[in-house]
Amino acid sequence: MTAGEQAYAFTKERILDGRFAGGELISEGDVADGVGVSRTPVREAFLRLEAEGLLRLYPKRGALVVPVSAAEVDAVLETRLVVERFAIERVAPIGATLEPALRKAIAKQERMAARNRAGDFVEADRELHRVFVAAAGNPILLQLHDSLRDRQRRMGLAAIARQQERVREILDEHEQLADAIVAGNAPRAVAILTAHLEGTRTLLRNGAALGVPS
Questions:
Q1: Which residue among 60, 109, 122, 146 has its CA within the 20 to 30 Å range from the CA of 171?
Q2: What is the spatial distance between Cα 20 and Cα 80, in angstroms, rounded to a whole number?
């Protein structure tokens, strides 16, 4: 990677996993020292991250890590519900064919939970939901769902950080969701999905700054 790409990847990873928490002011010097590059590529990386809505730049002061707002939580989860509900209803007749992929994603989540690897746990969470969205066969909706990946990761890590018990709840809800999809029971699957996403919404909105607390 170029120096700019290294600075971008370094900074973005720390924003998404909460090491650079929402509301924190970071400097070009902090990142330059961490990556081992000059400040020029860091400045370029900060501009990219500002365009993505993750940073807000303040000349001569640094960059503010933009907290996840309550409005963003609502928007992301509402979008997911629309897309995933459609997908569940579309795949219900072939739900049984999705069982291997769904069980594989849940098994991966179980392993990541046991190893306390929160980032990989959240990624496996996304993989499970992507199974039935992809199976619905609408590439535009799949692309929309994929575009939420960074936001899902950040919110998922924040939710786990706020309440460790949420990990077990997520696993239980995923088992129930998979069972309903495999059985072809779309109304039950949609009801489980709705409660599942609402649990995350409630947990995040109960916080103050929606970053990942240390």
A1: 146
A2: 26
Residues in the chain: 214
CA atoms within 13 A on the CB side of 100: 1
CA 122 to CA 16: how far, in whole Å?
11
138 lies in a domain? yes
The C-alpha atoms of residue 24 and residue 63 are separated, in whole angstroms, by 8
The answer to pTM > 0.70 is yes
**Edge-to-edge strands, sheet with 55-58:** 25-26, 62-65, 55-58
Task: Provide the pLDDT for residue 12.
Answer: 94
> Cα–Cα distance between 102 and 132 in angstroms, integer?
8
Question: What domain count does the chain have?
Answer: 2
Angle at 164 between CA 8 and CA 196, to 5 degrees: 85
Nearest 5°: phi and psi at 140?
-70, -45
> 3-class SS at 55?
strand
Would you state the structure tokens that stand for residue 22, as one six-digit string? 């929402």
pLDDT in tens, 134-166: 999 999 999 999 999 999 999 988 888 878 889
Strands 25-26 and 62-65: antiparallel
Going by C-beta distance under 8 Å and a sequence separation of 6 or more, which residues neighbour residue 43? 28
Q: Report the b/e string of 119-141 with b at 16+ CB within 10 A.
A: bebbbbbbbbbbbbbbbbeeeeb
Looking at the structure, tell me whether residues 53 and 97 fall in a common domain: no
